[in-house]
Amino acid sequence: MWRDLGRIGLDPGSGGYRRYAWTGADRDCREWFRAQAEARGLTHETDRNGNQWAWLGDPLAGDAVVTGSHLDSVPDGGAFDGPLGVVSSFAALDELRRRGAEFTKPFAITNFGDEEGARFGLACVGSRLAAGQLTVEGAHRLRDGDGVSLPQAMEAAGHDPDALGPDPERLARIGAFVELHVEQGRALDLSGDPVGVASAIWPHGRWRFDFRGEANHAGTTRLADRRDPMPTYAETVLAARREAELAGGLATFGKVAVEPNGVNAIPSLVRGWLDSRAADQATLDTVVAGVERAAREHAERAGIDLTVVRESFTPVVEFQHALRDELCRLLGRSGPGPSGRAVPVLGTGAGHDAGILSASVPTAMLFVRNPTGISHSPAEHAAEDDCAAGVRALADVLEGLACS
Ligand code: HGY
Ligand code: MN
Ligand code: MN
Ligand code: MN
C-alpha cells in the first residue's frame, strides 16, 4: 500500500513529492485512494468539494467516526506529511478486522483535497469549502502561478466547479473526526514516545508583501537613480527573523516572485509571502505588526510602494477536550509508550484539516514521532516501528469510538 503510493508524484531530482491539487499526480493519488477503498469493500465517493470518502456502513445514518488526512504535498514535500494519516487509516481498518472488531457506527476514511495549498496558495481548500470557511466566490478567485483558476483546474480534472459549496449536512453526520499525522517537530523524539495526542494548533496565517519599484537596466542605471524593490524585500526578510526572535514566534518568507525576473533587469515588483505562527494570538500579532512596520520603514526610505495583504488566517484551535481526553484514556489503556505510560499531549504550529473541521465537528489528532522533526522536505522521516505504533494507536482509538 505504502510503496504504491510512494511512487506517485515523486521528483527523482529532489527526492521530494510534487503532488499539487488537480494535477496528474493528484489524479493518481485519488485513483490510489479509490482502489484501496474498493479493495476493502468500502463505498467510495468524492464530495462536492473534491474530498474523497471511503465508507463502511450508512453515510446518512449519522454519528459517523471518520479518520483520514490528505495526499497532496508542498513542493518537494516529504513522504509522510498527509499520506501517513491516510495509509494508517486503511491499515488501522485492516487491524480492526484482524481483531474481529464489530463497527456499531458508520465509519469512513477521508482524503481531503488541496490541504497544503501549494498550487493555489490557500491551505485546506477542500475542508474549508466543506466547513463553509471558504466561499465559492473565494475559491473561484484562486489562481495558480500560471494564471489557471481553481475552477478551470477542477474542470480539467473532471470535477464540476459549480458543485463547490458548504457541506453542513455531511459534517453534521460526523460524530468524531480523528486525524493521524507525522509530528512536524521533535516533541515526541525528546519525550521518547512513539505516539502523542494533539492539544492545540497554534494561530497562523499568510501575508503577501508587494514591493513595487521601477524596472530599469541593470547595466546602465546609476545606484542613486534606482527604485529597486529587491533590497527592501531583503531587509524585510531579515527584519522578520529579528521580530520573531524578539517576540518568541515564527516568521518565514519561503516564497518570492520577481517581475520581470531577468538577471539584467532591476525588478519592477518583488512579491514575498510571509508565513507567521505563534503559540498565542498576541505573540502572532506582535510578530506580524513588527514585520510590517519594518517593511514600511525600509520602503519609505527607498521610495518603494508597499502593499500588504493578509491572504489567509487560522485562529488557534483548541481540540475539543472531551474527545482529546477520550483518546488519552483509550491510549493510556494500551499505553503505546515505552512503559505503558499515559500518552503525551502536545501542541503544534502546523495547520491541518482537523483544525479546520474542529469548528463544525468534534476532532482530535494523533501524532507519530518524527526523529528529526523535519517536515515539508524530502528528508522528512518516521521509523517503521513508530508508524506501526501509530496504526495500533489509531486502531485502539477507532475501536473505542466506533466498535462494540
Ligand atoms: O502549512 C501547514 O502548516 C500545513 O502543513 N498545511
Ligand atoms: Mn504540510
Ligand atoms: Mn499535513
Ligand atoms: Mn497540514
Give a brief rundown of this model.
With 404 residues, the chain is of the alpha+beta class. It has helices at residues 2-6, 24-39, 83-99, 125-130, 136-141, 150-156, 168-172, 187-191, 229-247, 281-302, 321-334, 353-357, 384-402; strands at 10-11, 16-17, 43-46, 52-56, 64-70, 107-112, 174-182, 195-201, 204-212, 216-217, 250-259, 265-266, 269-277, 305-314, 317-318, 345-348, 363-368.
Helix and strand topology:
Elements (H helix, E strand, L loop, with lengths): L1 H5 L3 E2 L4 E2 L6 H16 L3 E4 L5 E5 L7 E7 L12 H17 L7 E6 L12 H6 L5 H6 L8 H7 L11 H5 L1 E9 L4 H5 L3 E7 L2 E9 L3 E2 L11 H19 L2 E10 L5 E2 L2 E9 L3 H22 L2 E10 L2 E2 L2 H14 L10 E4 L4 H5 L5 E6 L15 H19 L2
Parallel strand pairs: 5-6, 5-7, 7-17, 8-16
Antiparallel strand pairs: 1-2, 3-4, 4-6, 8-15, 8-17, 9-13, 9-14, 10-12, 11-13
Bound molecules: (2S)-amino(hydroxy)ethanoic acid and manganese (II) ion (MN) (3 copies).
The site of one manganese (II) ion has 4 residues, from loops.
Keywords: Hydrolase
Protein name: Allantoate amidohydrolase
Pfam families: Peptidase_M20
